[in-house]
Amino acid sequence: MNRISTPQVATEALSDRERAVAERFAAGLTYREIGEALFIAPSTVRTHLATIYGKLGVRNKIELAASVAQMVAGKTATEAVAPLRDAEPASPTLAVFPIESLNPEERWHRFADGLSSDICVDLARFADLPVIAFHTMKLLGNRPETFEDHVQAVGATYAITGQLRADDRRVRLTIQLSDTRTGMTLWSERYERTMEDVLTLQDSLTESVINVLAGCFGTLAAIGRKASRQKPPGSLQAYDYFLLGVEQHNRFSPDGNAAAMQLLTRSIELDPTRARAWTELAYAHSIQAANGFGDDLDEAFRNWRRAVDEAVRLDPTDPAGHTCLGDLKACLGDLAGAAEAHARAFEFGRNNADTLALLAGAKALIVGDPADGIPFIERALSLNPLGPPWYHGMFARVLFVVGRYRECLSALERSSQESPNTLMFQAMSHAHLGEMEEAAEVVSRLRTQFPSFTVEGFIAGYPISNPPALSAVREGARLARLGLPGPASTA
Question: Tell me, what DSSP letter sits at residue 462?
C-alpha cells in the first residue's frame, strides 16, 4: 500500500510553517538555509521535519519531494514517486536512537539517555555529516519496529542503536551502526567497563564510541568512501568529493595532495558551508608548503590562510581548524598566537583522537614541551586503535625530538610511505644511531623520489619552530648529510 498522501490530504495536514519547511527541504536547502529563510533555528527545522514526515506518511527526502510535487502539480503518488525511487540523497544523515537499558532501575535508564545524548552531540561535531537532533529521536523511542516506520521517517541513511546492561560492578554497552535502506549491520562493538563515577563512566563510553565511528578514517568515513568510489563520476555530491579528498590528502604524496586539492575544491563549490572541507583544504596547502610540492611558498601560505580562516569562521568550535590555524601562525612567526590556537583546539577536542594526534606533533615540532606530546599521541591511539598512518607519523616526530630514535623508526614503518618527510626522519634517525649505511640508502631514495624536498623547506613550511626540535632536526640532517649535494657519507 502506498504511504504517500494525496495532494488534498497533504495540503490540509500541514500548517503554513510546516509546508514552507517541507517545500524548501524538498528543494534541496539545508537546515541552516531553511532556518535563515524562515527565521528559525536549524534544530527547529529538524523538529518540523519529523512532524511533517509523520503527517505525510513519507519515509525519506525522496518521498517528501514527491509529496510536495503532488501539492504543487496535482500529480498522483505513483506518477510522482516512481522516477525518484532510485535517486541518491544529497548527503547521508545519521540518527542516534536512545540506548535501551535492560536494567529495570530508573538510574540506569537515565544513564542510558545521557549516554545517547552525549554520543549524538559529539557525532554532530566530529562525524562530518548531519545528525538528527536527539530530542527528535527520543520522541520515536528506542525500540523501532522497523527502519521503514521509524528511522526513514526522519530521512536517515544510517542509524545507531544500542543496549545497556549494568549492575553495581560492571557496565556492558552493545552498540551497532546500520544502513536504514537495507537494515544491514555495518559495524557493531561491545564495550565493558568496571563501575566507577557515573559521569566518568559516561565520558569513557562516549569517547570510545565516537573515536571509532567519527574522524577522518573512522567507520562512517570508511563506509562513505566505499559508497562514493562505487558511484559514477557524474553523480558525486559534495559529501562524496569531501570524503575522497580526505582520502587523497592522507596519502601525503605529491599526486595525492594535488588530487585532494581538486576534490576538496569541488566539494566546496557544491557546498561552501562545510567547515571541515575548508580545514582539509587548508591542511593540503600546508602539506604543499612543508614538502616542497609547489614552487611558491608564499602562495601556499596565502592559500592556507584563506582556507583556514573560512573554516574557523564557519565553525569556531572545530578543533581541527584551530590546530591548522596554530600551525600557520607559527609559520608566520607568531608563536604566541600558535600556542593560543593550539590551546583552543585542545579545549574543543580534548577527547577527539584526531585532535590529540595533531597536537602531539605540534608540541614536538612547533611550540610546547615535546615530552608532553607522548601522552597526547598515546591517548589518541588508545581512543582510536585503528587510527590512520599519519597518527604513527606524528608519534615518530615526538619520539625523534625526545631522542628515542629506534622507536621512531618503528613508528615510521607504520606511517605514510609516500611522504618525503617520512624518509627524512628515517634517514636522520639512522644517522643519530650511527647507522650511516642505512641513512645513506634512505637519503638516496629521498633525493630520487622527491628532488624538490629540502630539510630547510620542511622547517619553514611545517614549521619546526620549537628549539629542541630545531636542534635535533638540524643535527640529524648534518649527520645524514641531508643538506649537501650528492649521496650521504657512509663514514
Answer: T
Amino acid, res. 458? F
* Distance of alpha carbon 54 from alpha carbon 301, whole angstroms: 50
Cα separation of 455 and 393, whole Å? 16
Least confident window among 223-232, 239-248, 295-304, 310-319? 223-232
C-alpha to C-alpha distance for 294 and 285, rounded to whole angstroms: 9
* Residue-wise pLDDT tens digits, 299-355: 999 999 999 999 999 989 889 999 999 999 999 999 999 999 999 999 988 888 899
d(CA 373, CA 354): 13
Phi (first) and psi of residue 185, to 5 degrees: -80, 125
| Cβ-contact 300, 436 below 8 angstroms | no
Distance, C-alpha 490 to centroid of its chain? 44
Residue 27: which pLDDT band, with cuts at 50, 70 and 90?
low
Q: State how far the Cα of 335 lies from the Cα of 343, in Å rounded to an integer.
A: 12
For 341, the enclosing helix (H) or strand (E) is helix 335-349
pLDDT digits (tens, 9 = 90+) for 51-95: 787 778 776 666 676 676 565 444 333 333 333 333 444 567 888
pLDDT for the residue 299: 93
| pTM, two decimal places | 0.68
Using omega within 30 degrees of 0 as the cis cutoff, is the peptide bond preceding 463 cis?
yes
pLDDT at 79: 35
d(CA 326, CA 341) in angstroms, rounded, equals 5
Quote the pLDDT of residue 11: 44
The neighbour count for residue 155, using CB atoms within 10 Å, is 24
Pair 438, 406: CB distance under 8 Å = no
Closest CA to 121 of 370, 352, 390, 295: 352
What does DSSP assign to residue 132? -
Contact 323, 345 (CB under 8 A): yes
185 has which bridge partners?
Answer: 178
Question: Which cell numbers in the block locate residue 50?
Answer: 519529523
Q: What is the pLDDT of residue 240?
A: 87
How far is Cα 69 from Cα 80, in angstroms, rounded to an integer?
A: 7
Q: Which residues pair with 160 in a beta bridge?
A: 96, 177
Helix (H) or strand (E) holding 109: helix 106-126
For CA atoms 113, 118, 121, 127, give the dihedral sign.
negative
Mean pLDDT of the chain: 81
Candidates 306, 287, 410; CA nearest to 358 is 287
Distance CA 76, CA 28 (A): 22
- Dist. CA 315–CA 275, nearest whole Å: 6
Q: Are 354 and 383 in contact, with CB atoms under 8 Å apart?
A: no
- What is the DSSP code string of 396-418? HHHHHHTT-HHHHHHHHTTS-TT
